[in-house]
Design goal:
Number of domains: 2
Distance between the termini: 11 Å
Structural class: alpha+beta
Order of helices and strands: HEEEEHEEEEH
């Protein structure tokens, strides 16, 4: 009998810990970046570099930071899959053009930091372009070296809004991080732990 009680108590403890962990995640507003790219890259002349972003949800937030360390300006293009296919075809043509999401892109930049809130779910590509696409974009001069940071965060708790890149380089947008109800989470977790301890002692 004592062995069965010990097993039951052990299982109760594990269940308690599991539920407490889930409550902490749900109530504390903990979120994890789905896309998290942060490293130096080199884009050769007339080439491009892409960062795929799969299964993005509506309301999630794209964070982009670019700093060219060697070379000329580039174009940062946010593309849907159909636009990405069109883009790949366009760069093989002289003076080709392509559709892109303007509010999530930045044309002819050497340094930029901005955010964009996705209005709809889907797959996306962020392209660092060093070609003559799109028209009126940065002209390719030489290979470009840069530090690139791309991150997709979970949707903020407040009403999502699209943040348009500002005209000033390296100026963060006004997007605020979601508030975390940490006190409520701690109280809830504590209540669950107390309840399970009482139940296990009564068995």
């Amino acid at each position: 009998m004592n062995g069965k009680k010990e097993i039951y108590r052990y299982r109760s403890y594990l269940t308690c810990i599991g539920i407490a962990f889930l409550l902490m995640i749900m109530l504390s507003g903990i979120s994890f970046a789905k896309t998290n790219f942060d490293r130096p890259i080199t884009v050769s002349l007339n080439k491009f570099f892409e960062v795929p972003m799969g299964e993005v949800k509506a309301g999630e937030i794209l964070n982009v930071e670019i700093q060219v360390t060697s070379g000329s300006a580039v174009d940062v293009l946010l593309l849907k899959p159909s636009d990405y296919t069109e883009y790949q075809n366009a760069i093989t043509q002289i003076g080709g053009n392509v559709n892109y999401i303007a509010n999530g892109s930045s044309i002819s930049v050497t340094s930029k930091k901005y955010t964009y809130t996705f209005p709809e779910a889907g797959d996306y590509y962020l392209v660092i372009d060093n070609t003559d696409v799109p028209k009126r974009g940065a002209p390719p001069m030489d290979q470009v070296e840069m530090n690139l940071k791309v991150r997709v965060d979970a949707a903020a708790m407040q009403t999502p809004s699209t943040s348009t890149p500002s005209g000033s380089d390296l100026t963060p947008s006004s997007t605020q991080p979601p508030k975390t109800p940490g006190f409520e989470a701690i109280i809830s977790v504590f209540a669950v732990i107390v309840l399970f301890f009482r139940l296990s002692r009564n068995k």
